[in-house]
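Students often ask why inverse folding is considered easier than folding. One informal answer: many sequences map to the same fold, so there is more than one right answer. In these notes we will look at a single instance of the problem. The structure comes first.
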């Protein structure tokens, strides 16, 4: 996935001429996205759109492209240098300009890490922007995902939160890179709100690993369509639930869609189960 832009000076320094640059643009080998910004033809459209606006791809747009969990991503997120003033959202017409501007979220903050000639900011900066653009629980799930996938390491968390307003530092102790999915992180936060004892990624001999065990008796599984949609997968899940029941565990399963888009119902279900046992 190409994510570097070139200036005219870069191309000339690499041996191109003014005429060869123009020819490469006509042939579609180069994309002239804006003044003095050229991209290779295989550059991902999201990067091209960000450079065309006048900045670099960041925040939820970049993280989603990398496969990091984000709860909701409906706009193009672009970082623009604080000293910049010329942004381009549409070529002609005030209506088109206003409509395009509403689909773009511009981040003007100073960067933690230098981006150079990249069409995107570094992941640490994208995460800082994502904290500002999401609810606290969604931000935790996003950082968990980046940690789990190795885009950042735990030693970088202090640097990440140092770049954010002080009010966000209360989230730092809640980060846990062991979570294997965003929905799992969201359920963990709900369980914490209920005061549960939480164990993550618990291995049971002869059964396998489960997502969470709450208060020592309730197994919570967060099922995605990708791994649980087939009848064979569902049978396998029921076999696991049966084996866990024989050991004295109750199992509740939520789909990823339930957790992300019906969180109040999921929280109510967890609260009902937990409180019934406590009574």
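Output (designed amino acids):
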């Amino acid at each position: 996935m190409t994510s570097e832009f070139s200036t005219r000076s870069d191309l000339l320094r690499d041996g191109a001429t003014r005429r060869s640059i123009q020819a490469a643009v006509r042939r579609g080998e180069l994309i002239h996205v804006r003044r003095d910004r050229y991209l290779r033809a295989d550059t991902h459209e999201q990067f091209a759109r960000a450079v065309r606006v006048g900045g670099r791809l960041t925040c939820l747009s970049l993280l989603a492209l990398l496969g990091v969990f984000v709860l909701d991503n409906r706009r193009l997120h672009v970082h623009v240098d604080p000293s910049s003033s010329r942004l381009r959202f549409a070529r002609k017409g005030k209506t088109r300009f206003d409509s395009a501007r509403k689909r773009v979220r511009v981040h003007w903050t100073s960067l933690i890490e230098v981006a150079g000639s990249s069409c995107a900011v570094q992941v640490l900066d994208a995460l800082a922007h994502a904290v500002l653009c999401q609810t606290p629980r969604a931000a935790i799930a996003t950082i968990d995902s980046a940690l789990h996938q190795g885009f950042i390491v735990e030693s970088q968390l202090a640097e990440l939160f140092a770049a954010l307003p002080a009010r966000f530092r209360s989230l730092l102790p809640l980060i846990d890179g062991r979570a294997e999915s965003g929905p799992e992180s969201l359920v963990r936060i709900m369980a914490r709100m209920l005061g549960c004892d939480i164990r993550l990624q618990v291995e049971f001999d002869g059964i396998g690993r489960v997502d969470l065990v709450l208060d020592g008796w309730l197994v919570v599984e967060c099922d995605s369509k990708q791994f649980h949609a087939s009848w064979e997968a569902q049978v396998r899940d029921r076999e696991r639930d049966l084996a866990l029941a024989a050991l004295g565990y109750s199992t509740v399963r939520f789909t990823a869609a339930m957790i992300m888009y019906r969180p109040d119902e999921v929280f109510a279900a967890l609260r009902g189960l937990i409180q019934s046992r406590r009574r």
